[in-house]
Write a structure and sequence with these properties.
Elements: H1 3-21, H2 30-42, E1 46-57, E2 63-69, E3 74-79, H3 81-93, E4 96-101, E5 110-115
Length: 118
């Protein structure tokens, strides 16, 4: 990924963190998640909730994840190690994850990955 793309992702992440900092008492309910997804859309990023169907490591050391969006198909890509660890935890515990990305939830687009209690 080039420096311009890194700068764009950093700017989007900062905008998202600022927007979330202004939210008080949002719970992990359908309504709460919808509100958080709307905030993500307002700062120009995408929000997805789903399950990890596959998480593994390739012989070259890269990490592959298949993320299935609830009700909307799946995406397979190489994820950075920080996101892979959350995906692996979600797979092993049968939990959903919330992915915020710059476009499709592919490894190079990931801004935030959160393990969900529900």
């Amino acid at each position: 990924m080039d420096q311009a793309a890194n700068n764009e992702l950093a700017t989007m992440t900062e905008a998202l963190e600022s927007a979330f900092a202004n939210v008080s008492r949002t719970s992990v309910t359908d309504l709460g998640l919808r509100q958080l997804s709307e905030l993500a859309n307002e700062v120009g990023v995408s929000s997805f909730i789903g399950r990890v169907a596959l998480a593994g490591q390739n012989s070259d050391g890269s990490f592959r994840v298949q993320f299935n969006v609830d009700g909307d198909g799946g995406f397979v890509s190489l994820w950075p190690e920080w996101a892979f660890e959350l995906a692996k935890s979600a797979l092993l515990s049968d939990k959903r994850i919330w992915v915020i990305s710059n476009g499709d939830p592919l490894g190079t687009n990931l801004l935030q990955v959160s393990l969900m209690a529900t």
